[in-house]
């Protein structure tokens, strides 16, 4: 068994899958969570809808005896739509998965990490929050919640040596952005400090550092990959 | 589970948690409040006690769900005193025998 184990949510998505593969290469044990685990994942997976608190609790109960070091809350959904034309059910689901899912997983992981007196919680926000991106109001609202939760929860977990941070990348080539016209992505990238589209490994390099002991004095922060 | 065993566990856990803090260790007994006026634990210490009790209950084949709204808001909250918490723990059904 690896000395340090991480849980990655949204394991079936492009970001989650990449982070899992890279974390395993670095020697971390990995358990991935997603609603319907695909068969081709290299790590252990548990079926879990992160928006369902009871499912999240059951999953983390099964991880009581692994040397948990961190959770990476990469599960997320978006709906590129104006708020005035977004169905309420879609708004609700966006908040449930992005915000409540992060909160449920963080709280359950927090209990295990508090017992171990150390660890890392890494949440995912988006450049869309800092830019107040039009056409993504519900997504921005949920991710802004994630950033606020990260700041407050970092203080709650500090006494146990657990850091809590958020990563907010610019647009990444995943399913989430697959239907966004390239011209829109290009315009978004032009608003970053570093004017090229984030690669999946750019995200991993940030997550890797946050997982590492070297980041022990960084907590409650939101790191913008690509700069904003 | 016997109430005396649970009380002994809670007592030992509180002393261990308090021993991590500087200063004199207060006397605690069954009537000692856990929360509010006269309480001996900070909110972070209470979490540590709950985590310890969660493990204790798991080892004894019980499920201790300590974050229900009713646990914190009810007038008869089990968190009122060490004794009421012990009674609540003893009342938890054995897993597989819940109603």
UniProtKB/TrEMBL annotation, chain A:
<dbReference type="InterPro" id="IPR036291">
    <property type="entry name" value="NAD(P)-bd_dom_sf"/>
</dbReference>
<dbReference type="InterPro" id="IPR002347">
    <property type="entry name" value="SDR_fam"/>
</dbReference>
<keyword id="KW-0560">Oxidoreductase</keyword>
<dbReference type="InterPro" id="IPR057326">
    <property type="entry name" value="KR_dom"/>
</dbReference>
<feature type="domain" description="Ketoreductase">
    <location>
        <begin position="4"/>
        <end position="170"/>
    </location>
</feature>
<comment type="similarity">
    <text>Belongs to the short-chain dehydrogenases/reductases (SDR) family.</text>
</comment>
<dbReference type="InterPro" id="IPR020904">
    <property type="entry name" value="Sc_DH/Rdtase_CS"/>
</dbReference>
<dbReference type="Pfam" id="PF13561">
    <property type="entry name" value="adh_short_C2"/>
</dbReference>
<dbReference type="GO" id="GO:0016616">
    <property type="term" value="F:oxidoreductase activity, acting on the CH-OH group of donors, NAD or NADP as acceptor"/>
</dbReference>
<protein>
    <submittedName>
        <fullName>3-oxoacyl-(Acyl-carrier-protein) reductase</fullName>
    </submittedName>
</protein>
UniProtKB/TrEMBL annotation, chain B:
<protein>
    <recommendedName>
        <fullName>Carrier domain-containing protein</fullName>
    </recommendedName>
</protein>
<dbReference type="InterPro" id="IPR036736">
    <property type="entry name" value="ACP-like_sf"/>
</dbReference>
């Amino acid at each position: 068994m690896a000395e340090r184990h991480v849980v990655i949510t949204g394991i079936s998505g492009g970001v989650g899958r990449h982070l899992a593969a890279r974390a395993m290469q670095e020697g971390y044990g990995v358990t991935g969570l997603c609603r319907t685990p695909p068969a081709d994942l290299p790590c252990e997976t548990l079926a879990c809808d992160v928006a369902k608190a009871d499912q999240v609790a059951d999953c983390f109960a099964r991880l009581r005896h692994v040397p948990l070091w961190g959770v990476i809350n990469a599960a997320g959904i978006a709906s590129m739509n104006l708020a005035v034309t977004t169905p309420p059910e879609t708004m609700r689901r966006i908040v449930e998965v992005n915000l409540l899912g992060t909160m449920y997983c963080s709280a359950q992981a927090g209990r295990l990490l508090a017992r171990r007196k150390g660890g890392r919680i890494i949440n995912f926000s988006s450049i869309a929050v800092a830019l107040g991106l039009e056409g993504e109001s519900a997504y921005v609202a949920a991710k802004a919640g994630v950033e606020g939760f990260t700041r407050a929860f970092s203080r709650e977990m500090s006494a146990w040596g657990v850091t809590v941070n958020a990563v907010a990348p610019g647009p990444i080539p995943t399913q989430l952005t697959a239907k966004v016209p390239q011209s829109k992505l290009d315009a978004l990238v032009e608003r970053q400090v570093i004017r090229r589209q984030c690669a999946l490994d750019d995200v991993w390099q940030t997550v890797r550092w946050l997982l590492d002991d070297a980041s022990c004095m960084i907590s409650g922060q939101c790191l913008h990959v690509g700069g904003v | 589970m016997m109430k005396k065993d649970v009380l002994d566990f809670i007592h030992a856990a509180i002393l261990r948690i308090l021993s991590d803090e500087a200063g004199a260790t207060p006397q605690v007994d069954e009537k000692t409040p856990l929360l509010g006026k006269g309480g001996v634990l900070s909110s972070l210490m209470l979490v540590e006690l709950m985590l310890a009790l969660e493990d204790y209950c798991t080892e004894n084949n019980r499920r201790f769900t300590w974050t229900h709204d009713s646990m914190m808001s009810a007038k008869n909250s089990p968190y009122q005193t060490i004794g009421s918490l012990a009674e609540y723990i003893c009342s938890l059904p054995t897993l597989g025998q819940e109603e």
